[in-house]
Amino acid sequence: MSAVPHRLHLEGLPRRRAVNRAMEVLAWIAATIAVAILAIVVFSVAQKGWSELNLDLLTKSPIPFSLTNAPQGLANAFAGTLVIVALATAMALPVGILVAVYLNEFAPASVRNGVGIVLDVLNGVPAIVIGIFVFGLLVVGHGQSAFAGSFALSCLMLPLVARSTMEVLALVPNSLREAGLGLGIPQWRTTLSIVLPQTIGGIVTGTILAVARVAGETAPLLFTSSFVGTQTNWNPHHALQSIPVAIFELSESPDPKDHARAWAAAFVLLLFILLASLGGRWLATRSRRKLAAR
Amino acid sequence: MSTTIEPTVKVETRRHPMPPREQLEKIFMIENLDAIYSGKPAVKGVTMEVYKNLVTAIIGPSGCGKSTYIRCLNRMNDLIPGFTQTGAIRYHGHDICSSDIDPVAVRRNIGMVFQRPNPFPKSIYDNVAWGLKVLGLKDNMDERVERALTQAALWDEVKDRQKASALSLSGGQQQRLCIARAIAVEPDVVLMDEPASALDPIATAAIEELMNSLKGEYTFVIVTHNMQQAARVADMTAFFSISRGDEGTRYGELIEYDATEKIFTAPSDQRTEDYVTGRFG
Q: For A75-292, which CATH superfamily applies?
């Protein structure tokens, strides 16, 4: 230990400190860039859509080729997105939960890992591929419908819901499963009454994040639900307008007011996704902490 | 740590004299049981009987397969991937290891209390009532719950707050709740895997007392690494130890099984004597 004082002056120490400092600064810059991109996007979207960002956007229907200054909005797109995303959630949620329950509670490890990889691959499939798949499956010969759009979005949601449910199921302590089984209660019953209720917070979170993810998907809806009228419609048998598709269409319009409306719609969508993600994450931390405390 | 520690539990037997063994009904006949995790034997060649309405203790050093063994008795190990067992466990004459026996039915008769209290995240009342409800014992629910909680020596402490969360109870109370939950569904045998290892001496004494008072109705098998506890509660004691096989594999083995007095005062195997006198383990 007596040698230590002599070694306090290491050779090349200033250089090491400089490198350390440089790396720190680089990492800091990278992090700032990531935050800045989001800030710039939000800000410029808000700025460009500001003129059309009002209540009419949510309540009025669009007027095609309007020559007057009558107020118009994208009520049909907001209604359509609501219907399509709600239906997609209704389809993806039960299937996703069941997939996760099977994989985490009943399947042997080999199946769990195998299907887990399949879910990850499905998660990585480009939305447009899902879109064209559903187009071939449901639209050709039947025509477009919000149902078809919902089905396409539910394909995108399924792996997200299943994966996040698996994650929270894995956090439920095994001792609870053993407690049920030790009483001579069948495993499905223990899973349903003891294990699943523990995961509701996590499942809600995963679902919110999945909704946030698919609410902005455009490609699958272009194939499945894009030939639409301007009237607000809630019937999922018809093709319904949606916010992302409306943004896409308005951005191709020659009228600068349409552009502004597209930006305004984009801002609302962005805000929704942002809030949903934040809410979802907040719920996730809360339920994880609650589970971990046990 | 300079203060002297007063013993809070007197090391003395609370047991009643045991009838001659020939007169006792055998509830389990375990024959040449091997328990294997992914090819590695954890316990080898166990042959012993468990007698009805007695407390049977399993003692031995850490890693000797006590828990593995007791979990074989109600097929709790089925849940562990890669687990296999050979040999026979005859429960009232039926081999519960055979494939045509449903493990759920086995566990319905042979309940289990675990090392760490694991109450359901439900109310105190529902912890006991849920199993009853699911298993179809729905008549006189309140009475059944009260009876189980009384038997587990918990009733007086919780009777005024049965709707409170079970997680608000202390560790010892939670463990007694788990015992109440286990005996509420009227099993034949209650397996206890180190039920007091996470508890303080007072809670431990309460659990030992309740085992002693309930053994007229149930048969208890208890794993413990607390030898004094075995001496206090058990009528019969089985000593397990670690043996070495070929190529340095280690596995648990039943060394000696006899009346508790005999095990603790005049063991016939040197390894048992070394263990109970504290020279080993």
A: MetI-like (1.10.3720.10)
